[in-house]
Design a protein that fits this description.
The structure holds two protein chains of two kinds. Chain A is α/β, with parallel strands linked by helices. Chain A contains four helices and five strands. In chain B, helix 2 crosses helix 4 and helix 2 packs across helix 5. The longest helix of chain B has 18 residues. Classes of the chains: A alpha/beta, B alpha+beta.
Chain lengths: 130, 269
């Protein structure tokens, strides 16, 4: 079994919640989060700009056996489809890895944390922003 | 085409045709002394990081660095070298000069350039530095950009990069949505790929809208390559914006004057 090493960053080229962040700034946020949480940060993978493409995320999930986990720039980068997100959580946890979101300072290391993440995503979907 | 009715010189027409049809051109560096300077400085920085004396054979030193550094320490080495190179005020103008004539034929002569030049190091049999098949446009680059890719050692076969030719790129791209991952995409395009051999002293300018990437280096030497994007200042930008990612290097006076010009006013007072 190959030795596990580090947390891969996951950033994106698509706007999030109507706002765009330059990729190098996303990396700064992830690097800062990793440093504060004492995680070894590995060079980020960049999700495609094409709407609905999560091909890069799928590649990261395939890489999990070699990693300790993934650090997303934001939890809102996850797919909008709930079933697909559940599949991602299950894959991460099944591999003995964890999933982090740097902006929201969320970390998922067990199935106990899934509902809290889903609550955030649902409220964002339905709540009004002034 | 007869020379007196053509706007482009014959050699420009040849270069243009190659770039459009093949998706890339390789050419001897316009500034060989500048390239040697970059190579030498990279080797010095690498030697400093590894606490070794500076070598009289920078190419040999870089090519054999895998005998002196572990995979775990590779990114530290890379960050030290690229940080040191980008700190040199002469780096970006020199890098531009390596391929100036090719860039100006393919892109234009009013240019912006990526603010930081990238460095990639790929040791033999190391799978930690791989770049899955991609087009830079998928990650937010503008389709109006080109990449100038410069090896600091001889690169060939799996020590180099691959590119999918324009003749099949569109058809393969159309299949993407039905594929799950980049690895599945790679397997689909593999029979059509072109591996680009580039001896040291030459530069590569390629169309980054075409799928490209690298695989595990199965050759005996370490690959050292630098890459930097150029585009026409006034062509459309995507997620890599002017100012934060690109800066102008040859903004012409006519454009500067045009941007500042104000028509006489006060007629509607």
């Amino acid at each position: 079994m190959p030795e596990r090493s580090g947390h891969r960053g996951y950033i994106g080229a698509r706007p999030l919640n109507g706002s765009r962040t330059p990729q190098h700034v996303q990396n700064i946020v992830i690097r800062d989060y990793a440093k504060r949480k004492n995680l070894q940060y590995l060079l980020s993978a960049v999700e495609h700009i094409m709407p609905g493409s999560y091909m890069v995320l799928e590649d990261l999930l395939d890489e999990l056996p070699k990693l300790n986990g993934i650090i997303c720039y934001s939890i809102f980068m996850l797919p909008p489809d709930q079933a697909r997100r559940r599949d991602i959580y299950d894959r991460v946890l099944r591999e003995g890895c964890d999933l982090h979101a740097a902006v929201e300072e969320i970390s998922l290391g067990s199935s106990d944390g899934i509902q809290a993440i889903e609550d955030i995503l649902m409220v964002q979907k339905y709540a009004t922003i002034l | 085409m007869s020379d007196d009715i053509a706007f482009l010189e014959p050699e420009e027409q040849v270069l243009t045709s190659r770039f459009v049809n093949e998706g890339f051109v390789t050419a001897p560096a316009d500034d060989r002394a500048g390239l040697d300077r970059i190579q030498r400085r990279a080797a010095e920085l690498a030697a400093d990081y590894l606490k070794l004396p500076h070598s009289n054979d920078p190419l040999g030193f870089l090519d054999s660095v895998h005998s002196r550094v572990s995979v775990e320490d590779l990114n530290g080495l890379r960050m030290h070298v690229i940080g040191g190179l980008n700190a040199e005020a002469w780096l970006r103008p020199t890098y531009f000069r390596l391929a100036r004539s090719t860039i100006e034929t393919i892109v234009g002569n009013e240019l912006c350039m990526q603010r930081r030049i990238n460095l990639s190091i790929q040791m033999p049999a190391d799978d930690s530095s791989l770049l899955a098949v991609h087009s830079d446009v998928w990650s937010g680059d503008s389709p109006f950009e080109v990449v100038v890719w410069v090896p600091l050692v001889d690169v060939f076969r799996t020590k180099s990069m691959y590119l999918l030719p324009p003749s099949v790129n569109g058809e393969m791209q159309d299949r993407m949505a039905s594929l799950r991952s980049a690895e599945e995409l790679y397997k689909t395009i593999k029979p059509h790929l072109v591996w680009i051999d580039i001896p040291y002293g030459h530069v590569l300018v390629f169309n980054q809208t075409l799928m490209h990437g690298n695989r595990v280096n199965e050759e005996s030497g370490t690959r050292w390559t630098m890459n930097c994007r150029f585009k026409s200042i006034m062509s459309p930008y995507a997620d890599k914006r002017f100012g934060e990612f690109f800066e102008p290097i040859s903004l012409r006076p006519a454009t500067r004057i045009g941007m500042q010009y104000k028509l006489p006013g006060g007629f509607d007072a």
